[in-house]
Amino acid sequence: MPAELETTPGRITLRGALTARRLGPLWPRAVRAAGEAAGSALEIELSGVERLDSSGAALILAMERRHGGEVRISGASTQAAPLLAQLRAVAPAQAPVRAKPAKRPPLFAGLRTKIAFFGDTLLALAALPAQLRMLRRADFWRIAERAGQQALLLVLVLGFLIGMILAFQSAVPMRQFGADLYVADLVTLALCRELGPLLVAVILAGRTGSAYAAELGTMQVNDEIAALTTMGVNPATMLVLPRIGAAMLVMPALTVAMDAAGLAGMATVLAAFGYPLSAIATHIAINGAAGDFLQGLGKGLVFAAAVALIGCRAGLTANGGPRAVGEAATAAVVGGIVATVVLDGIFAVITYRLHL
């Protein structure tokens, strides 16, 4: 006899053979009927059941769980009762329903991951003397070459144009007061203290930070990072620290190149206005204090470390396939530029408060 189901308020009656061969069409109907009876006591009548195997007992247990309340079994045969008891004893406990965590604001999304990555990098730096064998010198110089030498031409061109633009825009209003020669003082101070390291950091974020994120993101998507971890190699030591060191190594040279190119662009404009190069050089020497120049180099080192760290973090946390590589590169550029501007603002407040 095929398995049959009859429902009445507060009662479900099962008849026929509750075996694996007969339960296919009946299973979803029986479980759904038990769920519809939730909220009140339910009786499952088994007096009309001719045969019951483990599949039939599993159906009854599924009905009990779907109902979630008080369920009473009636009419069970001497064969069915011990089978149901045995199945209940070995069945896993129903996992409690967990409340969905509150959705975090986008500003704080991934904040824990970022802090953990920063901490892992600091720990890797502290343990570096004992793990120098993991650093590959050839890779370090290759990374430094890409970050520095290949960006030098762009830095020189951009610096020269920025110097010309600053000189033009400053000379127009200052000429009204006959002080256009002091454009040399203004541009020198702006380049050495602020614009030089800031613009180089933006270039690093666009070129080097995105390159770090794309390279490490590809390794993450292809499970190469997981393979290094399995072999006992710390990715922060082997991959992150060399890139941070390379960025910090080339940053002072690129900053000096940016300053020199900017001053050359400014001198070109002032020379076109009729001022001799000797007078321009004198103003640069008088106002180009060593403290301002060193202050710019110091800020540049911090900017480079932040850009490299953000680029590496974006790459190592990429997941979800090839699309994640592009998203990691975008996050590295945006994060690097934002971090550079924020750090520059912090430095401005500190130098103002310390009267530097």
Write the layout of secondary structure elements.
Blueprint: E1 4-8, E2 11-18, H1 26-36, E3 42-52, H2 54-67, E4 71-74, H3 80-90, H4 111-126, H5 137-174, H6 183-221, H7 224-230, H8 235-272, H9 277-287, H10 290-316, H11 322-353
Parallel strand pairs: 2-3, 3-4
Antiparallel strand pairs: 1-2
List low-pLDDT spans: 95-102
The largest sheet, given as strand count, sense and whether it forms a barrel, is:
4 strands, mixed
Order of helices and strands: EEHEHEHHHHHHHHH
Radius of gyration, rounded? 36 Å
Number of domains: 2
Count of helical segments?
A: 11
Per DSSP E runs of 2 or more residues, the count of β-strands stands at 4
State the distance separating the first and last CA atoms: 96 Å
Overall geometry comes to elongated
Mean pLDDT value: 83
What fraction of the residues are assigned to beta strands by DSSP? Answer: 5-15%
Structural class: alpha/beta
| Helix share bin | 55-70%
Strand order of the largest sheet: 1-2-3-4
